[in-house]
Write a structure and sequence with these properties.
Elements lengths: L1 H9 L4 E5 L10 H13 L3 E5 L7 H15 L3 E3 L13 H13 L4 E5 L4 E5 L6 H4 L3 H9 L1 H11 L9 H4 L6 E5 L13 H8 L3 H11 L5 E5 L3 H9 L3 E3 L20 H16 L5 H8 L1 H6 L16 E4 L20 E6 L2 E5 L2 E2 L11 H9 L1
Parallel strand pairs: 1-2, 2-3, 3-4, 4-8
Antiparallel strand pairs: 5-7, 6-7, 9-10, 10-11, 11-12
């Protein structure tokens, strides 16, 4: 694994990333992560993590992030920081205080967030971790086994300190919205909650979820209702956080518009400028822009972007702060936001007066290990 990380860094990776809440990373020990992070650090890399718990064990999970950063002497950023599930709502101020305290101890740690109270991931993340262990075929076998299916259904209704129970944390089937399937026969259920799908199939919603997982080979995506707006506001507005969509590329037309999505794919950055800057005044516009640009670039070691300055790469967005607005919703997400006038990538206009141009100036970005490897050769 060390050799694989070293090879990736030499080929241009920016660092190491883990998703410790999900299979298979959930089975990784802290010591294992530290050893791999040390390799990334040798090449000037950083560490990003979906921490092990965003719920009941969130404070222990934070301590693990701090430990990895300190032991590997590496910059660490937590993916989409949140306090998940109703029992943990209100904990965000303490979470932010602990991150600040760690920084005061010399640990380079920060976080990214998105400005929504609902999250999104694979449907199979709503099942106990053991269901997915070993890959897709084993997952399908377990869900087809009546005894193992009954066990999984029972565990989905129970609190757990072994896995992050997103089904229960969403309030059950009514809080889980199916947004994306690959099997065309399942597309008719997109945009429906699992409660609604269960009624439609005349099944227990948990059975409906498992049947969909089998028929879609675990590739379905859902939106889950697990956060509180007060916590989201605190995280979004904190000086230490950057912003991210936590979403793959989406579009209003073409191949990337064939399924629904989380509205964050379209609305994250405009929503921050409209809702938290213009409407709620939780931060100044200049602060929001700093968090979107120079702070974000610095967290991954991009030193030639993120600031308007001679000799820097000209990645520029021009927007109207009065009309900036996100229009994507959970039920109707595939809509570009309003108020963005011009976008330049590598100095060339990809959006001109609100219209997409024919320019395609994007380039693959490579981390510092790539140049180090070339120099050594």
């Amino acid at each position: 694994m060390r050799q694989i990380v070293a090879q990736a860094m030499q080929q241009g990776a920016f660092g190491l990333s883990t998703a410790l809440q999900y299979v298979p990373d959930t089975f990784a020990s802290t010591d294992e992560i530290v050893e791999l992070a040390k390799i990334a650090r040798l090449y000037g890399g950083v560490y990003f993590t979906h921490q092990r718990s965003e719920g009941d064990q969130i404070f222990d999970s934070l301590d693990e992030v701090f430990s990895v950063a300190q032991r590997a002497n590496i910059s660490a950023t937590i993916w989409h920081l949140k306090a998940a599930y109703s029992a943990n709502w209100g904990k965000m101020p303490e979470v932010l205080r602990r991150i600040e305290a760690a920084r005061a101890r010399g640990i380079d740690v920060a976080a990214s967030v998105y400005p929504y109270a609902r999250a999104s991931n694979d449907l199979i993340a709503c099942f106990p971790s053991w269901v997915s262990e070993g890959g897709t075929e084993k997952m399908i076998q377990r869900l087809k086994d009546p005894v193992k299916r009954a066990r999984a259904k029972k565990e989905m209704d129970e609190p757990s300190d072994i896995w992050q129970n997103q089904w229960r944390g969403s309030g059950g089937a009514a809080g889980v919205l199916l947004i994306q399937t690959l099997n065309p026969e399942l597309a008719k259920y997109e945009g429906m909650t699992l409660e609604e799908i269960g009624h439609h199939m005349n099944k227990d919603p948990k059975d409906a979820a498992m049947d969909i997982a089998v028929d879609d080979r675990g590739k379905s995506s859902v939106v889950i209702s697990i956060m509180d707006e007060t916590d989201v506001r605190a995280a979004v507005s904190d000086p230490l956080t950057t912003f991210g969509t936590d979403s793959g590329a989406r579009a209003e037309d073409g191949p990337l518009s064939k399924t629904k999505a989380h509205p964050r794919a379209f609305g994250t950055f405009p929503r921050i400028l409209a809702e938290y800057v213009r409407e709620q005044h939780t931060m100044r516009r200049e602060e929001a822009v700093r968090k979107m640009t120079s702070l974000a670039a610095s967290r991954v070691g991009l030193l030639d972007r993120g600031i308007l300055r001679p000799s820097m790469i000209a990645d520029v967005t021009v927007f109207d702060p009065k009309t900036m607005n996100d229009v994507a919703t959970y039920s109707d997400p595939l809509h570009y936001s309003l108020g963005v006038k011009f976008v330049f990538v590598n100095g060339r206009a990809v959006l001109w007066d609100g219209a997409i141009t024919e320019e395609r100036p994007g380039q693959a970005l490579r981390g510092p290990g790539y140049q180090m490897a070339r120099t050594s050769h």
